[in-house]
Amino acid sequence: MSIIAVLGCALCLIAASSVPVLGSPIASVRGAISPSVVATQRSGRLAGCASRQQLEAIKKFQDTGLRPGKSAVENKEESLRKGRSILADPVELQVKDFAGEVVGQEDLALKVARPESAKGLVHRYLMYAQNSMRAGTASTLTRGEVRGGGKKPYQQKKTGNARQGSRRTPLRPGGGIIFGPKPRDWSVDMNQKERRIAMATALQSAGPDFVVVEDLDGKFEAPKTKEMTGFLERLGAKPSEEKLLLVVEGQKRNALLSARNIDRLKVNKPTSLRIVDVLGADKIVVERSALETIKNIFGVQPTAVPEGAPVDVPVEEESAEGAAPAAA
């Protein structure tokens, strides 16, 4: 028999064995049935050569609709509020007059950061404020900017000294500075909303140190440091030992002049508070009107009523009863 005939018979046998006949001895031959058919026959799962992890991911997607790497949200409302500010619990503040007597009470409840992010947010704002105060004008000269140094100090050899090519090398006095400071911008970026929430968080945390006083209009007849010191002592503060922050509303010339000679006292307005002063103060003395401004800026904004909207005016019972006989 020729070689061509033998090859032809072999090809016929291979073609016949490739047809899957279920239940026949040929079907048990290795490779006779494709893996997809085997997978379908054994477990009834999805056909194909997918791995176990892929099959589990497909099954999870069919059951929950979640793609790989995603987890189910247990509380949808909580997830929507994540990262937003919250309204702090009210802190009761005593209101004192110019003589130091308690005459009323106020509440402080601002929109602050969540507990898990409050510390980091306030720290970022502190770094923002401190970096913004840096001038960034420090500058030094390199060996290429220092005057002189064009001539070789001495010959290369026969002196016993180390070889030198310039008198202005950084290794010698009067030479350039290696990696010295150059003018740069130290400021960092921070959103206005983040700065506002950070300041509100700092003010709310300093609530126990607040001392609310009545407005100081007309209280200081002349600019005298002694009167300001006595006023702070009557409020329970110690100007000579504690760091104080006085927050006043508007321009009060005599009060400002009376406070400028006290080293540990800082005076500011509620619209231009500094995070450095708030965090560093042992006590914060706030005017009553300045406290209202702080609430309006850092608290919950009141809902504005559009023009022309109907306003519900409650009708008193006495007026309604009085109108009935008139109608009769």
Keywords:
328 residues; alpha/beta; six-stranded mixed sheet; 11 helices; 37% helix; flat; disordered C terminus
Would you kindly provide a written description of the structure presented here, covering whatever features stand out?
The longest helix is centred in the middle third of the chain and has 18 residues, at 115-132. It is flat and about 125 Å long. It has helices spanning 3-17, 35-43, 52-64, 76-81, 115-132, 192-205, 225-234, 253-259, 275-280, 288-298, 317-327, and strands spanning 86-87, 91-96, 102-108, 111-112, 210-213, 244-247, 265-268, 283-287. The strands form 2 sheets. It has a 6-stranded mixed sheet with strand order 3-2-5-8-6-7. By secondary structure, it is of the alpha/beta class.
